[in-house]
């Protein structure tokens, strides 16, 4: 298993040769100018919510790849309005578990807001837990610190992808507490540095996590990490 970081909260997992892309926002990310968006060919696209900085490239990438798009019910309806045929849209909701060729995916709570780029209600934001064989990966999406995270503490998470930029989501200090809540030592930071309100001191963040007994990965845009 591996993951490639494309900036903001956009990551692409390779799960046993199945490509799974989350929250595609590349074209409008000033830090991701070197990424060739046409080369991104996922089998699945998962959306944590409908804000522009998580869905801006969904339609183009889906058209290029014919990927299946997965989202909460109301955000999935917006996906269909972008021209994605219903057969390529999977909607589900909290408590739901999808069984897909690469493994299982459970939708979990996120503390945030959600509207789609056209200004309409997008349902609730969410996160996802991916069950790939014996491995467990948590993608938190945009979220503040919430006690709901403690419900994940007994899953045996191998990796957690947590927002650390603050302002719109958790900052690095709350993310340390979130790592404790979900009982996961290996963290990949997301949702930071793209815009001035979420710029962080990377050295401070890595030191903070290390002193808390945690491993924080902050990959460069386009960098691949073996999980």
What is the topology?
Blueprint: E1 2-5, E2 11-15, E3 18-22, E4 44-46, H1 52-55, H2 58-65, E5 68-72, H3 73-81, E6 89-92, E7 97-100, E8 103-109, E9 126-132, E10 135-139, E11 159-163, H4 172-182, E12 186-190, H5 202-211, E13 215-217, E14 224-226
Parallel strand pairs: 3-4, 4-5, 5-6, 10-11, 11-12, 12-13
Antiparallel strand pairs: 1-2, 1-14, 2-3, 7-8, 8-9, 9-10
Keywords:
227 residues, alpha/beta, Metallo-beta-lactamase, Chain A, seven-stranded mixed sheet, 5 helices, 19% helix, hydrolase activity, Metal-dependent hydrolase, hydrolase
Task: Provide a short characterization of the protein structure.
With 227 residues, the chain is α/β, with parallel strands linked by helices. 19% of the residues lie in helices and 29% in strands. It has one domain: Ribonuclease Z/Hydroxyacylglutathione hydrolase-like (Metallo-beta-lactamase, Chain A), CATH 3.60.15.
Q: Can you offer a commentary on this structure?
A:
Helices cover 19% and strands 29% of the residues. The protein has helices spanning 52-55, 58-65, 73-81, 172-182, 202-211; strands at 2-5, 11-15, 18-22, 44-46, 68-72, 89-92, 97-100, 103-109, 126-132, 135-139, 159-163, 186-190, 215-217, 224-226. It has a 7-stranded mixed beta sheet, covered by helices on one side. A 7-stranded mixed beta sheet has the order 7-8-9-10-11-12-13. Helix 3 (73-81) links the parallel strand 5 (68-72) and strand 6.
């Amino acid at each position: 298993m591996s993951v490639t970081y494309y900036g903001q909260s956009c990551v692409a997992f390779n799960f046993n040769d199945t490509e799974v892309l989350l929250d595609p926002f590349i074209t409008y990310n000033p830090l991701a100018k070197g990424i060739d968006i046409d080369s991104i060919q996922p089998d699945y696209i998962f959306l944590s919510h409908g804000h522009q900085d998580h869905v801006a490239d969904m339609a183009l990438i889906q058209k290029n790849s014919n990927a299946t798009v997965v989202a909460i019910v109301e955000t999935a309806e917006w996906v269909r309005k972008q021209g994605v045929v219903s057969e390529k849209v999977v909607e589900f909701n909290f408590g739901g578990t999808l069984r897909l060729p690469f493994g299982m995916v459970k939708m979990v709570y996120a503390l945030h807001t959600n509207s789609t780029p056209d200004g309409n209600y997008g349902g609730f934001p969410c996160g996802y837990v991916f069950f790939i064989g014996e491995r467990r990966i948590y993608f938190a999406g945009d979220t503040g610190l919430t006690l709901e995270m403690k419900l994940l503490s007994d899953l045996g998470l191998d990796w957690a992808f947590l927002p650390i930029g603050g302002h719109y989501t958790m900052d690095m200090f709350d993310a340390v507490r979130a790592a404790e809540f979900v009982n996961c030592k290996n963290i990949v930071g997301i949702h930071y540095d793209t815009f001035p309100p979420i710029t962080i001191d990377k050295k401070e963040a890595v030191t903070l996590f290390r002193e808390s007994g945690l491993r924080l990965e902050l990959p460069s845009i386009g960098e691949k990490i073996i999980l």
